[in-house]
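Exam revision sheet. Question 4 asks you to relate a sequence to its structure. Input first:
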Amino acid sequence: MIDVLLVLMTFFMSITSTEILRTKTKLDLELPVATESKPKDTAPREIVINATWSAPRKEGFLEVEENVFEVEQLPSVIERRRGKNEAFFRAVIRADGSVPYSFLQQVLAACANAGVDNITFSVLSQEAPKGYAKPPR
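Answer key, structure tokens:
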């Protein structure tokens, strides 16, 4: 009996909280104006580098903002993206699982040659569930 009551209570609580969220989003709000506000900094402070590996050709490719290029071109791409007076700049490397470490070493060296000292690897916290398709290449 208690189990049934607990399930019903959970059900009604979830419906109620959903209804409250729906009604709150329909309110017309007039937000206050901040007199001392500053415009959002839109300068790019990082570059995301996608690394892929072609097993048949035994070579790696890099992609930044949908532009594909080779490792040798990476320092010039970083310098153009970074600008001249950028003090803090970070490189985020997203590498496919099939990319050999020797290729990633070349990417790291190219980032270092471009003067990037803050390099981060982007990874998943867990594997995707079975049945999920890999993204198209």
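Marking note for examiners. The first helix runs from residue 2 to 25.
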